[in-house]
Amino acid sequence: MRSIANSLHDQVAERLRELIFDGVLAPGSFLDEIRLCEQLEISRTPLREALKVLVAEGLARHEPRRGCFVAQITERDVDDIFPIIELLEGRAAYEATQKANQADIQALELLHERLTHHAQAGDINEYYAANLSIHEAFITLADNRWLAQSIGDLRKILRLARLQQLHAPGRLQQSLSEHLAVFAALKRRDAPAAEQAMRHHLSAQREALRELSRHHSSRIAL
């Protein structure tokens, strides 16, 4: 049985992840222990244990004599991670296509309807949430714990950047089209096509981030 202390620091770690992913704790920002203890109404011990977890996950970095800071994802990080996540999530789509039953397909149909609705409304935050649910559904359907663990570790880092790519011009509709292509392949029971479509989807995400980065740099230069 897990101890209450372990359970508490796990809860604190999850809360800190939410604050990071929501942008409340911005990349590069100092994680003020006193302020966070007051905000979360906890003592220093579970907070420090939670920060160790985040450092191990790559979501925070520790600097001796300075403390912890929210991690900043670099272009090098993105370039290194995306080819790996393409392979892993492509494989998840392949295995999900092989294992999904009719009830699973119906559940995915509802998720894609929600995704389409948010894309048509131009609601990036809600679209991203639905998008994330679909990716998680494919990983769950793949039913491969090693695949799920590997993807989960990398996606925690990529979540620092992936919402940004939906702000690229035209990206929302492109992303929707890519998702529908993956789902169409799954419904046809075409596992290789589902894998390829998922890999294309993730490759397009990387290109959208690259385009945003170029655009941002040109704006600074102006």
From TrEMBL:
Alphabetized, the UniProt keywords read:
DNA-binding, Transcription, Transcription regulation
Entry's Gene Ontology molecular function annotations: DNA binding; DNA-binding transcription factor activity
Q: Which InterPro entries match?
A: GntR_C, TF_FadR/GntR_C, Tscrpt_reg_HTH_GntR, WH-like_DNA-bd_sf, WH_DNA-bd_sf
Q: Which domain of life is it from?
A: Bacteria
The answer to keyword DNA-binding applying to this record is yes
Q: Which residues form the HTH gntR-type domain?
A: 6-73
User: What is the protein's name according to its record?
Assistant: GntR family transcriptional regulator
Which species does this protein come from? Diaphorobacter ruginosibacter
